[in-house]
Amino acid sequence: MQWVGLRPRIPGRGLSTFCSKWSSVHVLMLVVLGVGPSASARHHMQLMVKPSRNTDVLRAMHFSAGIPVSTVLTGMFVCGLLRTPNIDRLAEEGVKLTQHLAAAPVCTPSRSSFLTGRHSFRSGMEADDGYRVLQWNGGSGGLPANETTFARILQQQGYATGLIGKWHQGVNCESRTDHCHHPLNHGFDYFYGMPFTLVNDCRPGGSPELDAVTRARLRLYTQMAALGVLTVAVGKTCGLISVSWKVVLGAASLVFLFFVTWYASFGFVRRWNCILMRNHDVTEQPMVLETTAGRMLHEAVSYIERNKHRPFLLFVSLLHVHVPLATTKHFLGKSQHGLYGDNVEEMDWLVGEILKAVEVNGLKNTTFTYFTSDHGGHLEARDEHGQLGGWNGIFRGGKGMGGWEGGIRVPGIFRWPGVLPAGRVMHEPTSLMDVFPTVVQLGGGDVPQDRVIDGRSLVPLLRGTAEHSAHEFLFHYCGKYLHAARWHEKDSGRLWKVHYMTPWFHPEGAGACYDRRLCPCSGDGVTQHSPPLLFDLSRDPSEARPLSPSSEPRYHTVVARVGEAVKQHRRTLSPVPPQFSLSNIIWKPWLQPCCGTFPLCACRQDGDPSET
User: Per the record's keyword annotation, is Membrane included, yes or no (predicted)?
Assistant: First the structure.
């Protein structure tokens, strides 16, 4: 979810109020831009066009990658079961976007698009095949230094810029301390949080999640090789095989070397990936899940208090709601929806505490707040007890599916008391990429002119000076593959969606790829449609009834018009170095962030050495 604020702030609305309009929230981004109490700052808020340098901007973003927050889920499965009064209040006091769309269906590329206002493939933050998100803190891939984030532009405008929480855009390039992809190299002047993302491996004793298939294969290969060497050794001892002991020992050494090579990374996922950093320093390795949420809340509140008298941007990216659903004892067993519900309700409390800090410091009426998610719910996230909470309501598909609405339709809430009308609901197609030009405009900066910017400022739409979204067409990618495109025919009000590729569901008709962790973007796991599938989302938001020439007289006209738009869009593409290549993805010990002496990396909060 995202919460963006410019010191007008957005009260929230949760499950009970979103049930009729929203599907899922898998990642919570909270962005708050704060406008200071000075007269000039107040004037700027009213105009929202050319903020002066002394405009206070508080930006707090909260992501919760992978599993939707039920607060914005649709339908009776969860509606009414989860208590989210703080998010409810955000929506009630703000503007709600019902067709808000992520630029990618998984976290790393979606976040890079959000930060830069550009499709992630323009910066190499997408995959042809294989890995679709960054896998290691010790990898060399990440958001390139030549990309411009909204934080960098606001920093140049005199704002303090802080990021609290999840990053997942890379850390290093060539050495353990170069921090080329680090938040402080992308416009943030303060960072506290997790440079990676939550995975099951972060919980002691948790089932392997990170590259689990590869890990299982490597373990199997090692066992088979070891068994082979052992068989030869027994045969040699019994005189059944004529081979020298030197050959046996050499083979055993090779097997041991193979084991050490892969186990040095996969055997210590929690220690290498599940860490906390403050600015450039590792403060906890491995991190303690039970205390992380409280520490991030303390950091967010402290940041607001430290910067309340100056322009600031705070991006809060909480780790809720994401497997392994780490929840403090105070919230365990309190919801009516199991551990997932407990985690959602704790997240709502955290959001409420951050909003309270804004209010206590006298910033409520001068804070612009934005709340959203980075992709749809993770339907394949399951354990032995069943699904872990992800559900996308009436929308088809989920996390990892770049074309279906369930993978990319996310909540969007904007609040700015006295500037944006409370309770307004807008049905115009908008994108997470739109936040970049919106925030840049509100912060008094200029959108870069030396590159393609896919986002469009939402200021006219939010203020009511524009009736329609600036997007006539939006293009939906899965990795580097265009899966779908939508056309908002403004004159007729029709919203057309054309699918060129869709994933195979398993089992057939199940609505997800339960035979794997995520549906694939290409290869044997997808169907290429020729002619493409056509839906009218204005009448069929569930994408349940594909149109045909016999059922829709304008079928060929619509498909042709969208096809022409796709051709024009593809003319804007250019090759860039791939950040998700195997050479960038794999773990490199010399790039691994470490507190202490590598490989003996271990510390508690604030860097105190410890036995862990």
Answer: yes
**Residue 318, token pair as written in the block:** 């909480």
Exactly one of 26, 44, 79, 107 is catalytic; which is it? Answer: 107
Q: Which two tokens stand for residue 266?
A: 């996969």
In the chain, the amino acid numbered 508 is E
Phi first, then psi: what are they for 485, rounded to 5°? -145, 145
Going by C-alpha positions, the residue among 20, 63, 105, 127 that lies closest to residue 398 is 105
Which three-class secondary structure state does DSSP give residue 214?
Answer: helix
Domain boundaries, given as residue ranges, for the chain: 104-202+276-591, 212-267
pLDDT over 70 for what percent of the chain?
Answer: 86
Q: Is 168 a known active-site residue?
A: yes
Measured CA to CA, the distance from residue 119 to residue 115 in angstroms comes to: 10
The span from the CA of 508 to the CA of 321, in Å, is 28
Catalytic pick among 168, 179, 181, 476: 168
* Cα–Cα distance measured from residue 423 to residue 176, given in angstroms and rounded to the nearest whole number: 49
| pLDDT at 66 > cutoff 60 | no
Integer CA distances (angstroms), 532 to 466, 519, 563, 568, in order: 32, 19, 10, 18
Distance CA 286, CA 290 (A): 12
- How much is the pTM? 0.87
CA-CA distance, 143 to 146, in Å (whole number)? 9
Tokens of 296: 């991030």
| Rounded CA separation 564/557 (Å) | 11
For the cut 80, the answer to whether the pLDDT of residue 396 exceeds it is yes
**Helix/strand/coil for 15:** helix
β-sheet with 494-503: strand ranges across: 473-478, 481-489, 494-503, 526-536
DSSP percent split of the chain into helix, strand, coil, nearest 5? 30, 15, 50
Q: What CATH number does domain 104-202+276-591 carry, 3.20.20.140, 3.40.720.10, 3.40.190.150, 3.20.20.220?
A: 3.40.720.10
Lowest mean pLDDT, pick from 199-208, 392-401, 527-536: 199-208
Is 556 assigned a catalytic role? no
Tens-digit pLDDT profile for residues 358-374 = 999 999 888 888 898 89
Cis peptide before 324 (omega within 30 of 0): yes
Percent of the chain with pLDDT over 90: 70
Exposed / middle / buried, residue 204 (Cβ in 10 Å: 0-12, 13-18, 19+): exposed
pLDDT score, position 365: 87
- Amino acid at the residue 238: C
Question: For residues 4 and 51, what is the distance between their CA atoms, to the nearest angstrom?
Answer: 16
Q: Counting beta carbons within 10 angstroms of the beta carbon of residue 39, is it exposed (0 to 12), middle (13 to 18) or buried (19 or more)?
A: exposed
The token pair at 29 is 């981004």
Q: Tell whether the model's pLDDT for residue 237 goes beyond 50.
A: yes
Give the DSSP letter string of 405-448: HHHHEEEEEEE-TTTSPTT-EE-S-EEGGGHHHHHHHHTT----
Query: What are the E-state strand segments in 113-241?
Result: 160-166, 190-194
**Would you state the pLDDT for residue 178?**
97
